[in-house]
Amino acid sequence: MLRLGWVDYLNCLPIYYPLERALIKPPFAMQLVKGVPTELNQLFLGGELHVTPLSSIEYARHPEFAYILPGPVIASDGEVGSIFLFSRLPITELEGTRVALTSASATSVALVKILLAFYYHIEPEYQVSCPSLEAMLARAEAALLIGDDALRAREEVLSWREKIYVQDLGEAWKAFTGEKMVFALFTVRANWAETHPERVTALACLLNEAKTWGLEHLPEVSLEAQALSGLSLPVIKRYYTLLRYDWDESCRRSLLLFYDYAYKLGLVKERISSLRIWGEGFVTS
């Protein structure tokens, strides 16, 4: 049975909603496995998932392990609406302070380090924390949250008496580079793909079909997102207008740029100059 990872955040719901409800049916047995990004990364790299939305930084750390499926991505072109750096001070004043990083993220942790180093030119002290804004800010001057945790925290701080600065990291990356930001890629284990090529191609088509269905039925998906999260419908509807789900050449370009900065900062061991896309083989930049 094919085991497919499912990032258990609202950003993936448009893709998985029709699959979970059998509105779109795979031509083979398939199990959906839910988890936060870091959990799915570990399961995939440990060989327990065949396919998953992999944190994009993890692809750069293990490029030989996977192929990128030319289907859905989790990306933004500017604001992403669910990846925020919350801080008591303006970002440019965070030099030497403590920044708490959510334990649920890989790509966003790399992104905030890149932005603080190369865009804001500051060097704070980092610590990993469970994703609770109040607890994080009790021990640090700034906190990185992602996904549904970030969406809820953004609403929460609006009622706080203390002024909290909130920076959307997708927006900051766009201001810094002019590019999209790709947070997660649908990837397939290379050894499994090479022995099951027809199934991989069928799965890529299935995921594209599910994505198309979800985006064409966003009002229905948004109501489900509201029921799951407790967030208001206007917040959810705006959030879905910010996300980008289509793999294209701008995603390829932005990934290679992101990987270049990650290499310069020592977040990946080797410079990535090519991507393995299923159906293309190796494609160089």
Average of per-residue pLDDT values: 94
CATH superfamily of the largest domain: Periplasmic binding protein-like II
Largest sheet: 5 strands, mixed
Number of domains: 2
Give Rg in angstroms.
Answer: 18 Å
List low-pLDDT spans. none
CATH level-3 fold name of the largest domain = D-Maltodextrin-Binding Protein, domain 2
CATH architecture of the largest domain: 3-Layer(aba) Sandwich
Question: How would you spell out the order of helices and strands?
Answer: EHEHEHEEEHEHEHEHEHHHHEHEE
The assigned structural class equals: alpha/beta
Assembly level: single chain
Please describe what this structure looks like.
The protein has 2 domains: about 1-75 and about 180-285, Periplasmic binding protein-like II (D-Maltodextrin-Binding Protein, domain 2), CATH 3.40.190.10; about 85-175, 3-Layer(aba) Sandwich (D-Maltodextrin-Binding Protein, domain 2), CATH 3.40.190. The chain has helices spanning about 15-20, 35-45, 55-60, 105-120, 135-140, 145-155, 170-175, 190-195, 195-215, 220-230, 235-240, 250-265, and strands spanning about 1-5, 30-35, 50-55, 65-75, 85, 100, 125-130, 140-145, 165-170, 180-190, 245, 275, 280-285. The protein has about 280 residues and is of the alpha/beta class. The strands form 4 sheets. The chain has a 5-stranded mixed β-sheet with strand order 7-6-8-5-9, sandwiched between helices. The protein is globular. Helix 1 (about 15-20) links the parallel strand 1 and strand 2. The protein has 12 helices and 13 strands.
